[in-house]
Inverse folding.
């Protein structure tokens, strides 16, 4: 039986990967949280969620752009995974946005807050 012949199996390395993807992803989420706290003081409360989602999409686009510039395949895949995760989080949060909130983000109002 061919599947019992294990001479072709190559052993895997037990070394830890030099790419620290979990720490990088946690750092990016921490930066996104800090940006949301800072943005909260700049935009009205109704426009906070669309602003955070826009920030996440912009961060994902910059991360994907950096991944295209990266030369090593191993790190490139990690950066694309990070960009995909940020995009996924942005899409999940954008489901919670009401259309009125998005309109308030882009229209100017003469009414005082």
């Amino acid at each position: 039986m061919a599947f019992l012949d294990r001479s072709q199996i190559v052993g895997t390395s037990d070394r830890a990967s030099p790419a620290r993807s979990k720490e990088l992803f946690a750092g990016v989420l921490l930066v996104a949280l800090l940006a949301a706290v800072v943005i909260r003081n700049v935009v009205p409360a109704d426009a906070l969620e669309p602003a955070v989602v826009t920030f996440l999409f912009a961060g994902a686009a910059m991360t994907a752009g950096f991944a295209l510039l990266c030369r090593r395949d191993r790190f490139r895949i990690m950066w694309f995974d990070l960009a995909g995760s940020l995009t996924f989080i942005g899409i999940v949060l954008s489901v919670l946005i009401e259309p009125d909130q998005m309109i308030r983000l882009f229209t100017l109002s003469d009414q005082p807050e």
